[in-house]
Amino acid sequence: MKLFLDSANLQDIDYGLARGFIAGVTTNPSLLSKEPKAGFYAHVAKIVDRLTRQGAPLSLSVEVFATRPDEMIAQALEIRHRIPYENLAIKVPIGWDELRVISELARRDIDVNCTCIFTEEQAVLAANAGARYVSIFMCRLKDIGGDAAKVIANTRQILDKAAHAAEIIVGSIRSPADILEAHLAGGHIVTASYKILESMAAHPQTAKSVQGFLKDFEAWLT
Ligand code: E4P
To answer: Where are the domains of the chain?
Structure first.
């Protein structure tokens, strides 16, 4: 039932970490592109600084942006070298050639978050190649009529039957209901934006109940 924050925004990360429930942060090139052009490594270093200050093993996923496997491996090794954060996971998209990248990084004891997964088959390949995380894109799969809950549940069942250590991260989340569905389907981790995580905490009856308690208590005090 772990929750990761899906953001590269430093304020999102500060505000999210302050609430103590975030177990990790996932980024991707699109999320990073929304941030000020401070330079890739400079910005990631600021994220790492925030995570390190928590004094807890908070995962951070950073995606390679090379397209050819050899370049991906080289880029992953450079990221690992320049971002010496113990809980760093390198995001590598699933693909036939990308499996070589996943395998090579796993061989070097570099955690891999295999991303852009839409089928059980892709997840099985990634996990067998050595991925620490397999990231299933829930709403993007639903966008094309896919049964995301079934893919998550089947993947979890396959991993559990094999007692495989890989964890399912469910991404591409658009509402608190998606988070619930992803966890109930068997996602070990759900990664969602700050705004979606924030909205998880709200309910009209909660606000109404708290206001009523305070009103009654204030009346009693006076
Ligand atoms: C996970 O880290 C994915 O990169 C992310 O959740 C994708 O979400 P999107 O479909 O909103 O881009």
So the answer is: 2-221
Q: Which of 2, 34, 46, 91 is catalytic?
A: 91
CATH superfamily, region 2-221: Aldolase class I (3.20.20.70)
pTM of the model: 0.96
Atom of ligand 1 nearest to the CA of 113: 2
Judge whether 37 counts as a catalytic residue.
no
Averaged pLDDT in 10-residue chunks for the chain of 222 residues: 97 98 98 92 97 95 97 98 97 98 98 98 98 98 98 98 98 98 98 98 97 96 88
Q: List own/partner pairs for 147-153 with CB under 8 A and 24 or more apart.
A: 148/181, 148/182, 148/185, 149/181, 149/182, 149/184, 149/185, 150/185, 151/118, 151/119, 151/120, 151/123, 152/182, 152/185, 152/186, 152/187, 153/185, 153/186
